[in-house]
Amino acid sequence: FASYYGDHMVLQKKPSGAVVWGRGELGAVVTVTLSGASGLIVMEKTAQVKGPSGTWTTVLDPVDQGGPYTLTAEQGLENVTLQDIYFGDVWLCSGQSNMAMTVLQVANASQELAMASRYPYVRIFAAAPARSDVELEDLEQIDLPWSIPTAENLGHGNFTYFSAVCWLLGRSLYEALGSPIGLVEVAWGGTPIEAWSSRRVLQACGLLEDTGRHIWVGKKREGSQRSLWYGACFNLKPALCFAPPLSLALSSSTSPHQHLSGPQTPSVLWNAMIHPLLNMTLRGIAWYQGEANAFLHTDRYNCTFPALIADWRRAFHTGSAGQTEPLLPFGFVQLSTYRRQSADDSFARLRWHQTADLGVVPNARMPSTFMAVAMDLGDEHSPYGSIHPRDKQNVARRLLLGARAVAYGDKDVVFQGPYPTRAVLEVTRGLLNVTYSQELICRQRDAQAFEVCCSSQASPCRWLLAPVVAVGSRTVTLALSGCRALVLGLRYAWAEWPCEYQACPLYNPQGLPAPPFL
Question: Smallest Cα–Cα separation from 498: which of 370, 339, 364, 361?
């Protein structure tokens, strides 16, 4: 069997068929048998080993959720048997360090780890960080083979395995659905979206011809300690470039800050960590990435991100012989916060680009997606640096709502925060009335979250604060006292650190924050 099939794994349940593949002698016939707990054969498939790399592939008939099953592959006199296999929903979790943060690193970690044994039917698997200049057929290394969760393997170490966001989402999916859940972690800290993108994506977004001119840093893992910082700085004005604390820059490669310096080279993680998994039948993807792109090709993200989603979907659909659905549900976390008083708006721009500049998902450019807003979950005193907030429980809760609504079609779940539907100017009174899509709960009246573009010409914009005068059940009234010219635009929460913990101005009754908009 290929590297990511093993004892204790979860395979995708019906209506999809799970794809199973492996290696054998060229021309040989491999018989794949699925048997129930009593040894009764449930199905038998045969596949021929084909060139050039000597692989065989078969698609199992769709199986109801449950288990345990055994799966045997036989070629001549040789056979391999995998035990304790369940059928359920398989979710892939990918991204950079906020996805790689383990259960050991989150708020209430000891409590979360102690609860591991309550979830024997949520199975976990973690690929090892790897890069390649060519597309690989199988994973080179595995950090954690398919396992039943324990406090040890959920909290193996900092930024190793197992991903807290992935685990907390999977655990709550299990509670919501009652179906076994398989979680596959493929994450590497400090990595830009370009590294996770195939050449097709980079080409579609005009980034291929670019790469020669840019210093894509971080060729060797050891030497790339400061690569993210240099990667962040090479094409920015020095004022926008932030240097790491000295201790961080000088620390050795075995330091806890390793996670800040993943490879920056285009496509190397797609090649080594995603491409090998394409034959896997999936139910959904969860993604937490973008911090690195607040310092690299930020304004291309409105192309690269939707293009990556479309490309991964096409690739997983094709790779699984059509078993992974073409509009594979794709959930992601909108960037949280980093520096409190920063005047830099790259985080705000990136949050906007994460929605393909439409502010809310799913949308026409990003169908079948869902987003967890996290700008109100800042954690200035996180021991892992403020860019790594410890409240991953609320992140997972917000992702779960999106998964239930978008991936599982639960029409009654509210999964988005309130979003403006129109704005009406009362010129004589100097007021702007903004109408929202949902009922509003105002947690912070005097926050300086709204700004208007007050200008006689479209650019450059002069952004002025627009204080909140009144909040109705679905409306916000803003004062335009400072603006004597035309109001050409409105933005909300447009800052790297827009509000205090769970205290942005606007929420809905379900406690979901209104996302930022422009």
Answer: 339
Q: What is the pLDDT of residues 313-340, one digit of tens each?
A: 999 999 999 999 999 999 999 999 999 8
* 227: in domain: no
The DSSP string of 238-271 is: GGG--PPPHHHHHS-TTSGGGGG----STTHHII
Count of helix runs (H) and strand runs (E) in the chain: 12, 22
- Cα of 341 vs its chain's centroid, Å: 26
CA proximity to 61, closest of 88, 82, 92, 34: 34
Domain count, the chain: 3
Among 408, 432, 447, where does a domain finish?
A: 408
Please tell me what DSSP assigns to residue 411.
T
Regarding beta strands 55-59 and 19-23, do their DSSP bridges make them parallel or antiparallel, or are they unpaired? Answer: antiparallel
Closest CA to 120 of 92, 155, 84, 145: 84
Cis ω for the linkage preceding 162 (within 30 of 0): yes
Location of structure tokens 């690299």: 296
Say if CB 504 and CB 426 are below 8 A apart.
Answer: no
Of the three residues 368, 384, 408, the one that is the final residue of a domain is 408
Asked whether residue 71 falls in the same domain as residue 91, the answer is no
Domain of residue 28, residue span: 10-82
Q: Return the structure tokens found at 425.
A: 């100017």
Domain match, 184 and 330 both: yes
Encode pLDDT of 175-194 as tens digits: 999 999 999 999 999 999 99
Place of tokens 């395995």: 161
Rounded to an integer, what distance in angstroms lies between the CA atom of residue 217 and that of residue 129?
17
Rounded Cα distance, 231 and 293, in Å: 10
Q: Based on the fold, state whether residues 77 and 93 are members of the same structural domain.
A: no
- pTM above the 0.85 mark? yes
DSSP secondary-structure letter at 430? T
- On whether residue 413 sits in a domain, the answer given is no
